[in-house]
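Protein Record: Sequence and Backbone Structure Tokens
======================================================
Tokens: labelled as protein backbone structure tokens, with as many entries as the chain has residues.
Task: work out the structure tokens from the sequence, keeping to the layout shown below.
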Amino acid sequence: MARILWLNWSGGGNLPPSLGVARVLTERGHLVAFAGRPEMVPRVKTAGFRAIEITDAYAQVDRYPQGHFMTRAACYLTSPAVEAQVQSIVATEAPDIVLIDAMFPAALARAPQFGRRSAVFVHTFVFRQLDMWRRFFGIFDGMRQQAGFAGLPSVDDLWRPRDRIVSTSLGEFDAPPAPGWEMVRHVGPVLEDEKFAVPTTLPWPADDRTPLVMVSFSTGFEQRNVDKIQRALDALADVPVHVVATTGGIVAPNEVAAPHNAIVLNYAAHDPIMRRAALVITHGGHGTAMRALRHGVPMVVIPGLAGDQPYVAAAVQEWGAGVALSGDATVEAIRAAAQDVLSTPSYRDKAQQRCARLTGIDGAANAANEVESLLAGGRAEPSAHRGQCQQVA
């Protein structure tokens, strides 16, 4: 049994797969605790894990550039106060290994001082968007320096010295590895539902042949966008489909006007809905896109604010499994894209081909194997098993 500490960024696409890996590690007898910002704590406790609040998450927020939508996030992710508290938590917890979210520079900067093995977890592509990662870290470091603090190392210097970089994506979906990044392991998607995402009874009978469209635009508060949800609903209002929109708790259902053919829910388990879906309209979060592909469902991708979403959108379009639009796509553009995907069989065919590559890949188990291999001082290779694609009637 090992003691494992996860230094976490509780973004909408980061915490759920982390919880999925932690579940497998716990089932194998290890003790996993999460440390993160206050918003993380109830979600981790609900999932059944011990949560350590980083109480200094926003202690220095007043020094960061004000008026930016990521001001609070930048403070939590990069501030010296968080750096110091993270190091104190590691010293107190004395874990056998530290797992660090790839988007947490303050924790990564202190990793050399932890005195124990550590791994970086990237919950999306690595190589398709390596330049984006470098820009992303540069933006946050710039905000830190505007706050009057010394700069942080580059993403290359923060990630590459760690014992392992674990990507919860599929290697064949990513771009070819860059030289000098041999420590990267692709384990496959970890598609974990949080406890509040429960199966929901839909108002339409299971044998209703009307195409079902799912709309989902993130569970991260930093990406709250009422207008985008409304545009998607308006685009589908006169299309002969049923619509299920989930808001992830960051937009109240009564903040949007649902047309006659739609229901709007705070939370719902996505798998049962996607089994019936003919189309998913999404922001391009890696987890949502991979879940849609696992069910062989094509997409219309309208990227939000996260840096990886345009790359996910581009990949979906490159694979022929959907259409990528701009983040400010109009109602008319969304309607045209949805009708195109729904009426063109090749989109579903291409999504089904990606499904065949994903089915049977247990990303959570493969990631747990990587953690255990580090604990043992050895190396474990991800499983290459593939099963049968789930067919949608």
